[in-house]
Amino acid sequence: MGQACEAALLAAPDMHLEGSLGRDGDVFAFLSETLDVVVDLSLGHAVDQHGEQVVRAGKPYIVGATGYSSATLEALRAASAASGSPVLIVPNFSLGANLMIKFAAAASRLMAAPVITERHHTGKADAPSGTAVFTAQRIAQARAGAERPGFDSSAMHYKEALSGVLGADLDGVAIHSVRGDGYLAEQEVLLSLPGESLRIEHRSIDRRCFMPGILYAIRNIQRVNGLQIGLDTILDV
Known about the structure:
It contains seven helices and nine strands; from the N terminus they run H-H-E-H-E-H-E-H-E-H-E-E-E-E-H-E. By secondary structure, the chain is an alpha/beta fold. It has two domains: 2-89 and 208-234, NAD(P)-binding Rossmann-like Domain (Rossmann fold), CATH 3.40.50.720; 95-205, 2-Layer Sandwich (Dihydrodipicolinate Reductase, domain 2). The strands form two sheets. Strands 5-6-4-7-8 form a five-stranded mixed sheet, with helices on one face. The protein has a four-stranded parallel sheet with strand order 1-2-3-9, sandwiched between helices.
């Protein structure tokens, strides 16, 4: 992802790649550069170790890494408030995936029985995906305080003859995970009402799909106030 991001930045006519920081790089030297924004595509432990330094140095910070601790998230929030530097946490940079999340959350206010099915390649060891969890959280937020129409499709409401067949349950949203060699990253959200159903589906064909979202986040980072989670929060739709 880091190499693909570098290539996308070099190809963008309105951007300049000032520098990059590898695994053994010097964070202090890197932060001494004139940087308009820092994009972090490392691993969670690197965000735990260096993320707060980035924000306290006054650098707008876009985080595409996962696996950082909840304590780090709160430290970044506090550092952002102290320094005034925006922090954007992005579980998924795909513009299509973020549109899927926004549309699903909006539809869930009027439709029932939300079910998320995510399919990923065999190299993805964790399940469910972060995008599936994030989608379920957005749906739950959208339905909070609103009258839920009808019913949910989760084990909470039905008797499972085979344990797990109705999926995991996150605030009334059922989540199913599939792993196989025939997938890269796919997700669908199903919602229903009597006599009709709605399917919202997104597929990542290859990892190039994440680059437009990274460029969009960079171009719109000043629209972020404090710490925000999700590229969907700054999409113009």
